[in-house]
Amino acid sequence: MAKENNKTTKLTPHFTLEEMTRTDEELGYVDRQRQTQPDEQVMENLTRVCQWLEMLRQRWNEQYGEGNDPVIINSAFRCKELNRLVGGCTTSNHLTGCAADLRVMGKEQLLRYVVLLLDISDEMHQDFDELLMERNTRGYWLHFAVRPKNNRRKISLLNVI
Asked: Is 9 left (phi over 0), alpha (psi -120 to 50) or beta?
């Protein structure tokens, strides 16, 4: 795939490199100048995550959506400096492009996303690495990660319910 720039580089039909390499401004983590261009391995990892997110998007729209609802990315690939600035752990899957934080509109959508991703995993007979339901004072989000290998199928609720 030819890369013109991040805005036009599609990793999958509904996800671009640009959205997978920025951190959501609404969270107050803006400093795009600090973000580095991902290497080939990171691009492969981001594409793998996006393939799962395409399936999530399709299932959501079939079961709950309006037919064309997007899956919104708060944060995916982060360079080391940006990861440090946002308080990410030093072994974060975000550093390798293996993770995405998904915006959700409350607890109900969060739980439905989790169930859909579990169903997708079971049907494909493939594991994910992390499925973490998270919350802070601004709201809820879902951290989803899938690695090329050695996925742990780690599921966690962090002060969600």
From this structure: beta
User: pLDDT band for position 108 (50/70/90)?
Assistant: very high
**Residue 161: band (very low, low, confident or very high) from pLDDT cuts 50, 70, 90:** low
One-letter-per-residue 3-state SS of 2-27: CCCCCCCCEEECCEEHHHHCCECHHH
Q: Are strands 10-12 and 139-145 parallel, antiparallel or unpaired?
A: unpaired
Q: Read off φ and ψ for residue 102, nearest 5 degrees.
A: -105, 130
Measured CA to CA, the distance from residue 18 to residue 3 in angstroms comes to 11
Task: Assess contact for 138 and 118: CB atoms under 8 A.
Answer: no
Record the pTM.
0.88
146-151 LR contacts (CB < 8 Å, sep 24+): 146/48, 146/49, 146/52, 146/98, 147/45, 147/93, 147/96, 147/98, 148/44, 148/45, 148/48, 148/98, 151/126, 151/127
